[in-house]
Design brief:
It contains 3 helices and 15 strands. By secondary structure, it is of the alpha+beta class. It is globular and about 75 Å long.
Length: 238
């Protein structure tokens, strides 16, 4: 067989080799999890998959927490990007693959890799949960307790009147010994502006159970203020 191939003209051999080369490249790309050589290309692939845009990259950054904080589930995404069109935003989460490759985050138990945000006149603020990390456990009075939990949000607004944003969170929790659910104390964090119409917020909540048995869910509230501090929008808890 090899002798037969060597007897073929060079052009014919190249033509026969091309499909094998393409197939090899395809299999290699599949093995990387459909990774892309740049963050922008990975973002464009997600936009196409979700029918968004293409948008303009309004803001981006690494996903980081304090050194003693770890991802609640699996691993943290590597970076976040916010893409913007005229009337909507989208928050994308990417993870770094070997070399210069990037792909959609695969650990999306709490935060999907692509979230479309559509602020409106009635609801001018919209938020996307980017990542969740847990602090180190504590051992007060010999009792082993879980550490605090930090939530990272991207908040977006199309209303130019909003210049300052706050994110407030609390827990609704239910102890096994109680019939009615309870509310934890709210914690408010001022979001940091990272681009026009885009803010980044970190809210750190203490563990509501404090070693007791039960379950809980979190609630959030978005508030936007104008340049002189007048409240423009309050979502209420949801």
């Amino acid at each position: 067989m090899k002798k037969y191939l060597r007897s073929l003209p060079v052009r014919v051999r190249l033509a026969l080799s091309l499909p094998l080369l393409v197939l090899s490249f395809f299999l290699l790309w599949r093995a990387t999890g459909w990774a892309w050589p740049t963050q922008t290309l990975a973002l464009r692939a997600l936009e196409t998959e979700y029918g968004f845009g293409p948008g303009e990259i309004a803001a981006q950054g690494e996903i980081t927490f304090d050194a003693d904080y770890t991802a609640r589930f699996g691993t943290l995404p590597s970076v976040w990007l916010v893409s913007r069109t005229e009337d909507a935003f989208a928050a994308a989460l990417l993870e770094h693959r070997p070399g210069p490759l990037w792909m959609a985050a695969t650990n999306f138990f709490l935060a999907p890799p692509f979230q479309i945000l559509t602020p409106t006149e009635d609801t001018p603020l919209a938020a996307a949960l980017l990542a969740v990390a847990e602090g180190p456990p504590r051992l007060p009075d010999g009792q082993w307790l879980e550490g605090d939990t930090e939530y990272l949000f991207a908040v977006c607004a199309l209303d130019p009147a909003i210049s300052r944003v706050e994110v407030t969170m609390n827990y609704t929790y239910h102890l096994d010994t109680d019939d009615a659910p309870k509310e934890s104390n709210p914690v408010t964090a001022e979001a940091r502006p990272v681009a026009e119409g885009v803010w980044l917020a970190r809210v750190r909540l203490p563990n509501p159970l404090e070693g007791r048995s039960g379950g809980y869910s979190f609630n959030r509230r978005l508030r936007g203020y104008d340049a002189v501090g007048t409240l423009v929008y309050d979502s209420g808890f949801f």
